[in-house]
From TrEMBL:
BP GO terms, sorted: carbohydrate metabolic process
Keywords: Signal
Stored SMART domains: PbH1
Domain of life per record: Bacteria
Keyword Nucleotide-binding: no
Methyltransferase keyword on record: no
Protein name: Putative secreted protein (Por secretion system target)
Domain Periplasmic copper-binding protein NosD beta helix: 409-496
Xref: InterPro entries: ConA-like_dom_sf, NosD_dom, PbH1, Pectin_lyas_fold, Pectin_lyase_fold/virulence, Secre_tail
Annotated ranges, domain Secretion system C-terminal sorting: 829-889
């Protein structure tokens, strides 16, 4: 059945509290619910300090003065409300810090933005840095840049032979040769699609070089590119070039406790979005990293980066898109080992506390070399600290650079434990969704969609020397759709929608300040990983799971995407790969027929006054329209019994209506995902229209499903663009099951067509226009001659195995005789009125039980049974189909 992504919507006010699901019981360290209100006792208005919205003048001094005033009187017992007006505040910072505003050592502050916009005029700095703040809420504002930290344009020409491409900048875009780009510590480019994701099949990073050449009005040639860099790029793609300043995030939280961001939206950043380090109880609620209209890019680094927190973040009801690195990196803290005094005494860089636990790793051989608790700390000066360890550890290799080859010390007590990620959307972006190098996490009820790398990647960071092994990670009831399609994903050996592995440094390795690469180990470093009740619509591989001690897989629906572009010649898709893992429990998905939003089986007898909708959306009904054509309800078909006999010839149709007022039900609008399914038995080999939806004159605003006179089915708009099922023509005078799927916010050529549960290799003609269906009625069979049955509509895209399930769920005849046939091969079913069990006088091999709406409730194949448990059924009349040729009725008491 369709999996639900439960989004807990809540209203936050200053006086009110949000409702959150409980903290998981498996967390080692329990955490408080997110702080969502402060009972403030005083108010400071930034306008009283000279800040004026919408005047285009610098408001930075006034805001800092108001912040100082609030800080001076705020306490945990008497919090202060800092009030901004709705409008735009201009932030014109030119100093040397990473952020325009710094807020330190405040306890008890409610920053109330009241939908203000903060517009940063310096493309190299972030907005706000918090240090040692407690009991603080930031809420209700947005952040953008007046001068963007990225350039954006449309590719106009590609020359593979000479190694260059050309692009024309969008009007709002800065030119890529300005100082903020050329002086940036990190610079790279990306080919993108119009939704903000990496272009399928391209490299996810185009290294920066100096070969920008102005060749026309706001048009550049970017040279010195090799064929590998330009592979799969095309004219019409977007090219985005970033100038990245690490650390200059939208908001940074360091050493904070009980800090919450609520209802904050970021549109652009010189670095990442929301970052934290050494924090406890940090919450990000109803916040968003969004694409502004016309842009295909948002922030220049991770949307969230959380390193070495004592307690991980609580992130709920948020959305993130268009970023240029992973959505989230969540990591252990690391300490560089500077001196080995003995097996129990070392000196490290940066402070630690007595009682903290450390884990030590040899990255050359890929093995754990010990764990110990810190029993004594002596400050040595110069940010160096001499530690005494509770256990002897055989540390052998260190160097001044603490590069990839040196033994590593990780603070297990700062591993971002008790991390909660619920009810969020992560989509249309570069690389991974969440890169996990931490412990004790719940990732639940989220959507990961259109990411160029894995939706979730669990792997230590050997090259970056960050993060370590994962423990007690639960990934539950998430949806992964089209995660993994860039060139890097295609070429990686362990790529998957969910990928778990553990790595060591690749050999040979001579770092010299660069990366050596990684290779897998056989050390089962990760433990207690649970992946439960997820839907995974994957490219190449659903799950790659290696080096795990304690792995639980339970009821994950895994389906290969027919649109997958990642498979190489001769390569087959893989639902899951499990390697070098022990204590594995793997319970496969109980695949059930997905529930349609709207379903009309059309099996009513002629006398029925109502056509029954057996779908989940009971607000939709069916209306029969005839104006010269004929539509006969209760037609008796020899194969299935009652059905609709139709001869409309553009003089009638069957349409969906809203039952509340009989107005037309519009069906899917604009770029909504959709699946249509129906059974047809056409009586003539002529042009016919099965379905018509939409209105408008532009490309993609109208969709029709038609059978051409050569029996080929096509999906077309009104501008001559179409997708056609040439390889699976319909059968005249026989039942054909047709299913059409279209992904969310996608183009006509991503339409997938099926006949009788089999996917077509479609033929395309015209332009690959975006589907943007206009509001209109959803009409079936406006020009059709034949019999029809079982119309279903789903507001999401079904994958191949679900389509096959719908096909196999076709209606069983309701016109069976009450008495059984007396043929020799007849199987007697008894009793006809049963409570818990029905019996067969001969062995049966296939069984299907359906209710009178045609829904399959029990299905068994390749069995050898002489009795069947029916105790799970509700009381009522049922049909049972035996060995695919015999049907009878029974009544469940």
């Amino acid at each position: 059945m369709k999996r639900s992504i439960f989004i807990f919507l809540f209203l936050v006010t200053i006086e009110g509290y949000a409702q959150f699901a409980p903290v998981p019981s498996f967390f080692r360290t329990q955490r408080a619910m997110p702080l969502v209100s402060l009972n403030t006792t005083s108010t400071i208005n930034v306008s009283d300090y000279g800040a004026v919205v919408n005047d285009g003048n610098d408001d930075l001094i006034a805001i800092n003065n108001a912040l100082d005033a609030a800080k001076n009187i705020a306490t945990a017992q008497n919090p202060v409300r800092l009030v901004f007006e709705s409008g735009t505040y201009d932030i014109m910072y030119s100093g040397s810090f990473t952020h325009a505003i710094e807020l330190r050592d405040v306890n008890g502050l409610l920053w109330d933005g009241q939908n203000a916009e903060f517009l940063i005029h310096n493309p190299t700095v972030g907005f706000l840095a918090l240090l040692r703040c407690e009991n603080t809420i930031l809420q209700d504002f947005s952040i953008d840049h007046a001068t963007l930290p990225f350039s954006q344009g449309i590719v106009t020409n590609i020359n593979l032979v000479d190694g260059y491409f050309e692009f024309q900048l969008d009007d709002f875009s800065p030119v890529p040769t300005t100082a903020s780009f050329m002086n940036a510590p990190q610079r790279w480019g990306m080919f993108k699609n119009s939704k903000g994701g990496i272009k399928e099949g391209t490299k996810n990073l185009i290294p920066h070089n100096q070969f920008f050449e102005l060749i026309g009005t706001r048009t550049y040639r970017y040279g010195a590119q090799n064929a590998n860099t330009l592979q799969n790029a095309a004219v019409g793609d977007y090219f985005v070039h970033i100038g990245r300043y690490n650390g200059s995030t939208l908001i940074r939280n360091n050493e904070g406790k009980n800090v919450t961001y609520m209802n904050i939206t970021g549109y652009a950043s010189a670095s990442g979005g929301f970052n934290s380090r050494n924090c406890e109880e940090w919450n990000v609620i109803n916040c968003h990293i969004k694409l502004k209209e016309g842009r295909v890019h948002s922030v220049n680094a991770d949307a969230m980066h959380t390193n070495g927190n004592f307690i991980g973040p609580w992130v709920e009801n948020c959305s993130f898109e268009g970023f240029s690195d992973d959505f989230m990196n969540i990591k252990y803290a690391r300490r560089a080992i500077k001196t080995i005094h003995s097996s129990t005494e070392i000196t490290v860089q940066s402070p630690v506390n007595v009682g903290e636990k450390m884990e030590f790793y040899n990255p050359r051989d890929g093995v754990l070399i010990g764990t110990a608790t810190i029993t004594n700390v002596v400050a040595q000066g110069g940010n160096l600290f001499r530690l005494t360890l509770s256990e002897a550890v055989n540390i052998t290799t260190i160097n001044p650079e603490d590069d990839q080859l040196a033994d590593k010390a990780y603070l297990e007590s700062r591993s971002n434990e008790s991390f909660i990620f619920r009810n969020n959307i992560v989509r249309n972006s570069r690389r991974y969704g969440i890169l996990i190098q931490s412990k004790y996490a719940l990732i639940e009820n989220n959507l990961f969609q259109n990411l160029s790398g894995a939706g979730i990647r669990i792997e230590n960071g050997v090259d970056w020397t960050e993060g370590f092994r994962a423990h007690e990670i639960e990934i539950r009831n998430n949806r992964f759709e089209n995660c993994g399609y860039d060139k890097n994903y295609i070429e990686e050996g362990n790529s998957a929608a969910i990928s778990v592995d553990f790595a060591k440094v690749a050999t040979p390795c001579t770092p010299n300040g660069g990366f050596c690469g990684t290779e897998t180990t056989n050390y089962r470093a990760h433990s207690n990983i649970r992946i439960i009740d997820n839907t995974i619509l994957y490219n190449k591989r659903g799950m790659y799971l290696k080096n795990i001690e304690g792995l639980t897989l339970d009821n994950n629906f895994i389906c290969h995407r027919e649109e997958d572009i990642t498979l190489q010649s001769g390569q087959m898709p893989e639902d899951e790969v499990i390697l070098n893992s022990t204590n594995v429990s793997n319970v496969p998905s109980q695949i059930a027929t997905p529930d349609a939003n709207i379903q009309f089986i059309l099996n009513e007898p002629p006398s029925a006054m109502q056509i029954v909708n057996s779908g989940t959306n009971q607000d939709v009904g069916l209306q029969i329209n005839t104006s010269g054509g004929t539509i006969t309800q209760g037609h008796v078909d020899g194969d299935i019994g009652y059905s609709f006999n139709i001869n409309t010839n553009n003089n009638g149709d069957i349409s969906f209506i809203n039952t509340s007022n009989s107005s037309p039900f519009p069906g899917p609008l604009q770029g909504a995902a959709r699946t249509y399914s129906f059974w047809v038995k056409p009586s003539q080999e002529i042009f016919q229209t099965f379905m018509f939806s939409g209105t408008g004159s532009e490309d993609g605003e109208i969709l029709a499903i038609q059978m051409q006179s050569n029996r080929r089915v096509r999906v077309t708009d009104t501008r001559g663009n179409f997708v056609r099922m040439d390889d699976l023509p319909l059968d005249i005078g026989q039942w054909n099951h047709i299913a059409i799927t279209i992904p969310e916010n996608n183009t006509l050529f991503t339409t997938q067509m099926y006949k009788n549960g089999v996917a077509s290799e479609e033929y395309h003609q015209g332009e690959d226009v975006f589907v943007k269906t206009g509001s209109s009625a959803l009409r079936f069979f406006p020009n059709y001659t034949g019999v029809a049955s079982d119309i279903r509509y789903f507001d999401y895209k079904l994958c191949g195995s679900q389509i096959e399930s719908v096909y196999n769920d076709r209606q069983i005849t309701l016109s069976v005789k009450d008495e059984l046939s007396t043929a020799d091969n007849t199987i007697k079913v008894y009793p006809t009125m049963a409570s818990n069990t029905i019996y067969f006088d001969k062995e049966v091999h296939t069984i299907r039980i359906v209710n009178l709406l045609g829904k399959t409730l029990i299905s068994k194949n390749k069995v050898r049974l002489k009795e069947l448990d029916i105790s799970s059924l509700s009381s009522g009349l049922y049909l049972i189909r035996i060995n695919d040729h015999q049907t009878t009725k029974f009544f469940k008491n």
